């Protein structure tokens, strides 16, 4: 199964991201993500079997007891790829809590022999795919209010015709420091 590890967004922050995406969709053509799909990817594992999934969960349980909720502060829009066919995202400002989560987690995955995409980490929330970005400037936009993320989740991703569908397989609460029911 195709999997990744991500932070979930609290409802208020997700609502603000959705409002921002709505403003953008007036100016930008593209396949905008469903609000319930918003997330911040920490590690993309790709295809794993049950044993690797168990190891990934163990890596989270190794790492997260000493981690804290992660501040979420939007720091601008960005893109991967060409302007005519871009992945459009909202950047999240780096912060110590995020660094103290993502790098130890990636180390724990390595220690447990779980492969993941090792591209340099860039904290972002994907807003749209196949976006055609205008050459001029965008109108003034209202960015999300600062918040913090408390839930780290292993998602299963099923690729469907009109975009991926994500299903949580394991959740851990960075505040209560325990696994959460699904
Ligand atoms: P689609 O591929 O249909 O556009 P998607 O990219 O949302 O949908 P996935 O490809 O399963 O769904 O990706 C899940 C998450 O992992 C997304 O946040 C995606 O940006 C990220 N991701 C996907 N592939 C990689 C990769 N090779 N390296 C790092 N992150 C990745
Ligand atoms: Mg993809």
UniProtKB/TrEMBL annotation:
It is an enzyme of class 3 (hydrolase). It comes from Candidatus Aveggerthella stercoripullorum. Signal peptide: none annotated. Belongs to the 2H phosphoesterase superfamily. ThpR family. GO terms for molecular function: 2',3'-cyclic-nucleotide 3'-phosphodiesterase activity; RNA 2',3'-cyclic 3'-phosphodiesterase activity. It catalyses: a 3'-end 2',3'-cyclophospho-ribonucleotide-RNA + H2O = a 3'-end 2'-phospho-ribonucleotide-RNA + H(+). A motif (HXTX 1) lies at residues 39-42. PANTHER family: RNA 2',3'-CYCLIC PHOSPHODIESTERASE. This is RNA 2',3'-cyclic phosphodiesterase. It comes from the Bacteria. Hydrolyzes RNA 2',3'-cyclic phosphodiester to an RNA 2'-phosphomonoester.
């Amino acid at each position: 199964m195709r999997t990744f590890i991500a932070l979930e967004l609290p409802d208020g922050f997700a609502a603000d991201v959705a409002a921002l995406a709505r403003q953008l969709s007036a100016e930008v053509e593209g396949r905008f993500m469903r609000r319930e799909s918003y997330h911040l990817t920490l590690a993309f594992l790709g295809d794993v079997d049950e044993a690797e999934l168990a190891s990934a969960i163990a890596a989270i349980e190794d790492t997260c007891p000493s981690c804290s909720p992660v501040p979420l502060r939007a720091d601008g829009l960005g893109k991967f790829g060409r302007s005519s066919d871009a992945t459009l995202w909202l950047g999240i400002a780096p912060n110590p809590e995020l660094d103290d989560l993502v790098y130890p987690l990636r180390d724990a995955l390595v220690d447990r022999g779980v492969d993941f995409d090792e591209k340099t980490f860039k904290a972002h929330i994907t807003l749209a795919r196949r976006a055609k970005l205008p050459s001029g400037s965008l109108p003034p936009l209202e960015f999300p209010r600062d918040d913090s993320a408390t839930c780290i989740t292993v998602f299963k991703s099923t690729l469907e015709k009109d975009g991926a569908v994500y299903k949580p397989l394991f959740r851990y609460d960075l505040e209560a420091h325990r696994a959460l029911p699904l």
